[in-house]
Structure formats: C-alpha cells, structure tokens
Sequence to fold (98 residues):
Amino acid sequence: MKSDGDYFILFDDDAIIEMETSTTDLIQRCGENPKGFAFRKGDHNKYNPYIGSQLNFAVLSRFILESEDVPNVDPQKDEGFEDRVWSMLLHVKYAQYE
Fold:
C-alpha cells in the first residue's frame, strides 16, 4: 500500500459510524500521539481488553503499521484470529504508544 497518511483508521465494510466526540478531537489526539494506536475497548474478556472485532474502528499510526505486520495466522486452520493476535501483540509490545 502506498500512502502519505500519518494515521489510518480501519472499519469493517458493514460498520455503522456513530461518534460521541467530534472528528476534530480524534485528529487532535492523533497529532498528540504520532506513534500511537487505539482499538475500541470492551469488557467481555479479562485477557483481551478490546471488543470482539478489534480492527473495526482501529486507529493506527504509520509508525505502528511500518513496525509490526499483521500476524500470518489462519482462522480456517484454527490458528487464531489475526486481528485479536495483532491487537494483543501491539498492546504488549507497544504499550507506551496506546
């Protein structure tokens, strides 16, 4: 992928976007955290703090995307779910940027 963007926001193709804060607030927070990332939080699992579909409204800096590839795991082979593995990898390895 070629892009000049500093941050990337990911959504599922069937996502309904409803925001409680303005996009200005989101852009400001990204500017304050140039190496940061964020996944939507949930409380369903004590081992994984994120919602079930971590890449639906994930916000990732260029730094994170260039530093850590999405893990090559195949859910069809019961290897795991790449979004859950990747979000936890980032959560542990890059906690200072979350």
Summary: The first helix runs from residue 23 to 32.
